[in-house]
Design a protein that fits this description.
Elements lengths: L3 E7 L5 H16 L8 E7 L10 H9 L14 H5 L3 E4 L2 H10 L7 E3 H8 L14 H8 L20 H19 L4 H12 L1
Parallel strand pairs: 1-2, 1-3, 3-4
Helix pairs in contact: 1-7, 2-7, 5-7
Length: about 200
């Protein structure tokens, strides 16, 4: 089965997006044992990245403290080719989402902030039968006009520049969101929830 390409985007690709990718990979690898297949290919890039830069030191320390691998990452600049190859783009802020959509308007139906994705997937309107399928992105887009939108921006704060404690707080927020979103990304979870509902 064809893999679903997920691109996670922030500004510099040195803190939030590589952290989110590491958490996604850890969560999906953990649950892969109960999944029939691993349908996701996950990468990251930045709207204003300087290619080749490593992870911001404070975020790297926070990630290492959580058992997340930081060594292979180098910043990449978002390109149109990356976007065209992506089935789903998750950004850290609404401004980044809008910049992706301006760069490639056809991405509007496939680009969400991480907080928006969590809101849609956690809503009462979400059907667990859609979990782990290639329909997940289309279903998320269709729910946009249905699920209530918060009044505040669905942004995750940039920890750069900032203290080590800020990086830890931002990482903790990303971990909470990614854990919830990733539960809908593997088919095995769908079966578990359906069985639970039927008991």
């Amino acid at each position: 089965m064809r893999k679903i390409n997920l691109l996670v985007v922030c500004s510099a690709n040195q803190a939030r997006s590589p952290a989110a990718v590491a958490v996604f990979r850890q969560a999906l690898d953990r649950d892969l044992r109960s999944a029939r297949h691993q349908p996701w290919r996950i990468q990251s890039a930045g709207t204003d990245a300087e290619p080749g830069r490593p992870i911001w030191p404070q975020m790297a320390a926070a990630m290492t403290g959580r058992g997340l691998d930081v060594s292979p990452h180098r910043a990449r600049l978002v390109t149109v080719d990356m976007l065209e190859a992506s089935d789903l783009v998750l950004t850290m802020t609404e401004d980044q989402r809008q910049r992706v959509n301006r760069a490639l308007p056809e991405m509007t139906a496939r680009t969400f902030t991480l907080k928006e994705a969590d809101r849609l997937l956690s809503s009462a309107q979400w059907d667990p039968a859609w979990d782990g399928t290639h329909e997940i992105v289309e279903r998320m887009h269709r729910l946009r006009p249905v699920v209530p939108t918060p009044s505040e921006a669905e942004d995750i704060r940039d920890p750069v520049p900032g203290s080590a404690s800020l990086s830890r707080r931002v990482l903790a927020e990303i971990e909470r969101l990614v854990e919830r979103v990733s539960q809908h990304m593997i088919e095995s979870h769908r079966s578990e929830r359906v069985v639970t509902k039927s008991i």
